[in-house]
Design goal:
With 261 residues, this protein is α/β, with parallel strands linked by helices. Helix content is 25%, strand content 26%.
């Protein structure tokens, strides 16, 4: 029996226009359509495959504002059993370190957690450090950037793809695993799953409920902040080269002028 916690994050849709708040330069999440992060869907799918191969329970864990319930319900409609939603205004602007502390405290509330599965990075911040930080805080082995994941009794095995080839990792459960976009193809929620998700339990918690000091989270306590931001300048028209028999020479001269050749 394997009890799995899957980390899920709601992010701005990559097809929406994304921008920062003018006041504090944090991500303006209200200005764009919000969706569950794509790699998180694959993490949920992998957890469900492990559950379906044996026995166990899949708990979705999300840290985010109230609207993040949409991402949670999407994961529940795929087949996850229950969810924990950490929602607290004091978390606004939290950095990776503070976020990892909150997630670690929330994972600690799940009895008998054997495996934590996360995406290797989210499409908004792209820090890519949360799984490793979480493993350190929980005192668990980390197997990151997995393209294949197998559970054999009390052992977890992972294949990690690199530019040099495949690296094979192995550890004893419990452990933390992060997956890449190559791990699987996530299922589409069925109508039955969507209806069932409305009745599945979602526990909403604050940082106080987790025993985390509010003075350790939030933008004011972040180790790094954005001090200035400006919109990307509009694209300018390219340079046109009229070929009158010397087009190649003109192109070469242009590239030399740009120090490209």
């Amino acid at each position: 029996m394997t009890n799995i916690v899957v980390l899920v994050k709601q992010v701005p849709d990559t097809y929406s226009e994304r921008k920062l708040n003018e006041s504090d330069h944090t991500l303006d999440r209200q200005s764009a359509d919000a969706v569950i992060d794509e790699i998180n869907e694959r993490a949920v799918e992998e957890a469900l495959k492990i559950k379906e191969a044996g026995e166990g329970e899949v708990t979705v864990l999300c840290v985010g504002p109230d609207r993040a319930t949409d991402a949670i319900r999407k994961a529940l409609s795929m087949g996850a059993d229950k969810a924990i939603h950490v929602s607290d205004g004091s978390l606004h602007g939290s950095d990776l370190v503070a976020t990892a502390k909150v997630i670690a405290a929330a994972v600690g509330r799940v009895d008998g957690c054997d495996l934590v599965i996360a995406g290797n990075e989210a499409s908004d911040g792209r820090g890519g450090a949360i799984p490793a930080m979480l493993a350190e805080l929980l005192g668990l082995p980390q197997l990151t950037h997995a393209r294949q994941l197998t559970i054999d009794g009390g052992t977890v095995r992972v294949d990690r793809e690199t530019e040099e080839g495949l690296t094979h990792l192995e550890a004893s459960l419990p452990a933390v695993v992060s997956v890449t976009e190559k791990i699987n193809e996530p299922r589409y929620p069925s109508f039955k799953g969507i209806m069932a998700a409305k009745k599945k339990p979602v526990e909403t918690l604050t940082v106080a409920d987790l025993g985390v000091d509010a003075g350790e989270v939030g933008l004011a306590n972040a180790w790094s902040t954005v001090v200035e931001a400006s919109p990307k300048p509009p694209r300018t028209a390219g340079r046109r080269v009229d070929d009158e028999g010397d087009g190649g020479v003109k192109v070469a001269e242009y590239l030399v002028g740009q120090k490209l050749i």
